[in-house]
C-alpha cells in the first residue's frame, strides 16, 4: 500500500470511501462541503423517504451514478459515501472518474468490526444493519485492499492518515465568522440572537416590526407563513440582570373577551410550536398586560369571594 500521507486531496479527484456500516464513513464525509458528497443513504431517503430501505438501493445507486457522472464531467472534487466494499460497486465509480480524467482515490475506513457492530446499537431501527451483514462487509473490505490498485485506483489511503479536522473546523469557523459579520459582510446582526434561541431555520420567516408598540416599546417581530403567524417581543432585561430573551403573544388566560396582549416567555422553537398549537394557553408564566400574571387567578378569586362575602354579609 502507499505510505503517502494526504493533508490535501488533489482537486481533480474522486474519493471513494470504503468501509462497512458503522465504520464512520459519514463522519469523515461531513468534513467536506455537503455539495461535494454523494451519500447512498441520503439518496435512498430521497427516493423512498427511508434511508434504511434496502429495497430502494437499486434506485439510489442509479441516482448516485447519474449525479457522479454530472460532477465528473465538470471535473468537480467528489466524495462517494457508501460501503463500496465490493468490486462491482466500485467499478462504475472508477470508470466515471477515468472517463473524465479525474483521479480515483480509495479511502479505507478500517474501523475494527466489533466497533462497527457496536455502533449499530444506538442507530434508529431502520438504519440498523444486521451483525452478520456488517461482519461480511468488514471481511469484503479487508479482502478488497489487495485488488484496489489493480482495479484502477491511483491512490489507496487509510482514513487514519487523513488530516480532515482542520479543514472541517475552518469551514465551520468561516460560517460562524460570516454570521457575526467578522468576514467584512453585514452578518446576521441582531438575528444572531434569533438564530441562537430558535435555530437558523427560523431566520427566513423572521421579520422585525419597527414602529410596532404592541410590546410597550420593546422590539417586536413576527414569524409568518401564509395564514399562520406568531408575534414576538424582545425583552432586554428579563431577570433584572440585563439578560435578553423573547416573549411570544398568546391569548389572555383570564378572559376570552380581553383585547389586551398577553405574553409568555419563549425559550426555544418548541415554545413557538406550543404557542401556535395552543399548548401554552394555560401556561402559568403568561402575563396579560391588563389582567397581570396568570397565577394571579387565585388572588382574583379570593378577592371575588371576599367581595361576595361583603355583599352577602
Ligand atoms: Zn387580559
From TrEMBL:
The keyword Amino-acid biosynthesis does not apply. InterPro entries: P-loop_NTPase. Residues 298-307 have a biased composition (Acidic residues). Keywords: Plasmid. Residues 290-313 are annotated as: Disordered. This is ATP/GTP-binding protein. The lineage of its organism: Bacteria, Bacillati, Actinomycetota, Actinomycetes, Kitasatosporales.
Amino acid at each position: 500500500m502507499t505510505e503517502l500521507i494526504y493533508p490535501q486531496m488533489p482537486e481533480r479527484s474522486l474519493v471513494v470511501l470504503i468501509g462497512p456500516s458503522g465504520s464512520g464513513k459519514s463522519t469523515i464525509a461531513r468534513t467536506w462541503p455537503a455539495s461535494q458528497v454523494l451519500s447512498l443513504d441520503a439518496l435512498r431517503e430521497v427516493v423512498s423517504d427511508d434511508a434504511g430501505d434496502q429495497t430502494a438501493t437499486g434506485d439510489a445507486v442509479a441516482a448516485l451514478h447519474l449525479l457522479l457522472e454530472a460532477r465528473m464531467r465538470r471535473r468537480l472534487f467528489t466524495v462517494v459515501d457508501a460501503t463500496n466494499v465490493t468490486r462491482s460497486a466500485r467499478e462504475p465509480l472508477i470508470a466515471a472518474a477515468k472517463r473524465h480524467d479525474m483521479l480515483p482515490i480509495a479511502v479505507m475506513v478500517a474501523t475494527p468490526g466489533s466497533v462497527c457492530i457496536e455502533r449499530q446499537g444506538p442507530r434508529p431501527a431502520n438504519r440498523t444493519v444486521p451483525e452478520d451483514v456488517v461482519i461480511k462487509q468488514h471481511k469484503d473490505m479487508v479482502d478488497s485492499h489487495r485488488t484496489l490498485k489493480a482495479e484502477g485506483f491511483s491512490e489507496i489511503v487509510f482514513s487514519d492518515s487523513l488530516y480532515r479536522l482542520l479543514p472541517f473546523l475552518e469551514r465551520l469557523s468561516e460560517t460562524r465568522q460570516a454570521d457575526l459579520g467578522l468576514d467584512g459582510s453585514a452578518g446576521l446582526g441582531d438575528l444572531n440572537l434569533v438564530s441562537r434561541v430558535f435555530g437558523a431555520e427560523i431566520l427566513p420567516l423572521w421579520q422585525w416590526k419597527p414602529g410596532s408598540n404592541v410590546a410597550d416599546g420593546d422590539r417586536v417581530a413576527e414569524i409568518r407563513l401564509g395564514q399562520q403567524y406568531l408575534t414576538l417581543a424582545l425583552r432586554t432585561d428579563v431577570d433584572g440582570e440585563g439578560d435578553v430573551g423573547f416573549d411570544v403573544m398568546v391569548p389572555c388566560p383570564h378572559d376570552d373577551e380581553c383585547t389586551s396582549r398577553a405574553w409568555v416567555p419563549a425559550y426555544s422553537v418548541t415554545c413557538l410550536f406550543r404557542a401556535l398549537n395552543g399548548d401554552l394557553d394555560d401556561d402559568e408564566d403568561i402575563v396579560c398586560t391588563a389582567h397581570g400574571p396568570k397565577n394571579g387567578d387565585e388572588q382574583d378569586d379570593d378577592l371575588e369571594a371576599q367581595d361576595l362575602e361583603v355583599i352577602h354579609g
